[in-house]
């Protein structure tokens, strides 16, 4: 199903030193083509065909074309960096990028396939060969569904500072249907998840430490400490902006979250909100990946 985020719960994001682009030119594209090997697909796929399948899987087709174009550029950049320009395979899951082949798109869209396919293909073709660069190197173009009103920085997420993955405003995400969520457990169910046994009074003793994007950096209960990411993974909740409480009225543990996804990079619902007020794909990408530039990739790699 369409989850529209690159990563949900556990994310092996590569926040390493930027990949070298030696022998790579960014200019007018030539006739050469990059092919992407997608795990589970029998044959390699031309880059732009692959990006069509990613945009169709990662973003609602109902979104504005400029948001879809921003997604195409981010997805293309992410794919090229992750695969080293097609030299390595990529998994079609939320740990990298979800990909739907043509048969999957036909099954998902049914009678709406022709119109939906045309819209996605146009967004991809209108950005053909465009990638995001920072200091002339491909960026790690992370994206997610919905922020908590601010994006998460690379440092806040992983402890590694990356200049173009900083916290920026995304307050329009509050209108996203994925902005808030509530999940409940009985105390017995809750205690099966943790290495300690909680009592109702423990929820009043919890200490929360937040980072600059107002997400939970860690929680502490007595001598026990967990990071926000550890809690998110343990509880399988949408984000690290959460509260924990015990409702004595219904005798349930309640976890209330804001945002959907890791929060790093482009917010997809934020991109849609910007597109709706007339912002272009370039405007969107420059907001979420500050200090970067969009250039055309010469696909004739040597």
From TrEMBL:
The lineage of its organism: Bacteria, Bacillati, Bacillota, Bacilli, Bacillales. Residues 41-134 form the Sporulation stage II protein D amidase enhancer LytB N-terminal domain. This is Stage II sporulation protein D. It comes from Lysinibacillus piscis.
């Amino acid at each position: 199903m369409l989850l529209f985020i690159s990563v949900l719960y556990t994310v092996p994001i590569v926040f390493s030193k930027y990949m070298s682009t030696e022998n790579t030119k960014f200019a007018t594209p030539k006739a050469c083509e990059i092919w992407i090997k997608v795990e589970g697909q029998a044959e390699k796929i031309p880059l732009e065909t692959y990006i069509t399948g990613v945009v169709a899987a990662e973003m609602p087709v109902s979104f504005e074309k400029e948001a879809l174009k921003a997604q195409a550029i981010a997805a293309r950049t992410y794919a090229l960096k992750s695969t080293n320009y097609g030299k390595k395979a990529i998994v079609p899951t939320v740990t990298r990028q979800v990909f739907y082949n043509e048969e999957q798109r036909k099954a998902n869209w049914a009678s709406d396939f022709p119109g939906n396919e045309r819209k996605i293909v146009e967004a991809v073709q209108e950005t053909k060969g465009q990638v995001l660069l920072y200091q002339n190197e491909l960026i790690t173009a992370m994206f997610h569904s919905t922020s908590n009103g601010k994006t998460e920085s690379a440092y806040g997420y992983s402890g590694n500072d990356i200049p173009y993955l900083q916290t920026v405003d995304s307050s329009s995400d509050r209108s996203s249907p994925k902005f808030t969520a509530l999940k409940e457990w009985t105390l017995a169910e809750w205690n099966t998840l943790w290495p300690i046994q909680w009592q109702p009074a423990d929820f009043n003793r919890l200490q929360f430490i937040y980072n600059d994007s107002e997400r939970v950096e860690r929680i502490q209960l007595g001598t026990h400490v967990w990071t926000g990411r550890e809690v998110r993974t343990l509880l399988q909740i949408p984000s690290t902006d959460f509260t924990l409480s015990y409702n004595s009225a219904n005798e349930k543990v309640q976890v209330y979250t804001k945002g959907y996804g890791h929060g790093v990079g482009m917010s997809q619902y934020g991109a849609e909100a910007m597109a709706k007020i007339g912002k272009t794909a370039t405007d969107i990408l420059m907001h979420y990946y500050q200090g970067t530039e969009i250039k055309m990739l010469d696909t004739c790699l040597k």
